[in-house]
Write the structure tokens for this entry.
Amino acid sequence: EAGVVQSPRYKIIEKKQPVAFWCNPISGHNTLYWYLQNLGQGPELLIRYENEEAVDDSQLPKDRFSAERLKGVDSTLKIQPAELGDSAVYLCASSLRGRDEQFFGPGTRLTVL
Amino acid sequence: GEDVEQSLFLSVREGDSSVINCTYTDSSSTYLYWYKQEPGAGLQLLTYIFSNMDMKQDQRLTVLLNKKDKHLSLRIADTQTGDSAIYFCAESMQGGGNKLTFGTGTQLKVEL
């Protein structure tokens, strides 16, 4: 069974440019999470989806960040415009509804110059 | 508020036991987790413990929970070089795939 797939693995952009990350969760997993992991820190939740509904986006900086999961399967996280402080690893995870184990993808490492 | 703390670094010799510690502040935590992150990889769930338990053992891993002191530990027996990684503890307020709050991570280095 394939795990959580994320692309790209690495992205380097200049500040003020837009960037998008893509995540394909494990087949059948209703719940999808986007986390931000700064260097030397643990992941912090940005947004959680149950199917196509964002049920917790309280930590998502909505002035520049947006996310979607239109068909309740794969998801896209966008930053527009990117700032220097957005340099981090963006992790996607998924889980079955009602289950606690979250399965993580390898992450996208973003560098903003 | 939620706050999970860990020591930053631990170095052990191969074959010795490793003990990684974690403290948390929210007494309403229901599940506590240990994740492992290898370089360039996502997080892998190692084990978890429900808050009404005080110990859980899974092969080389032993989790101890002291609810009174809000202290969680992970013991790795017979530590191997492949155990070198960053270990995160995390707590959740409810079961069912809810929000995880992670600690800052402990980097474990296993020396020959």
Q: What stands out?
A: The longest strand of chain A covers residues 88-95.
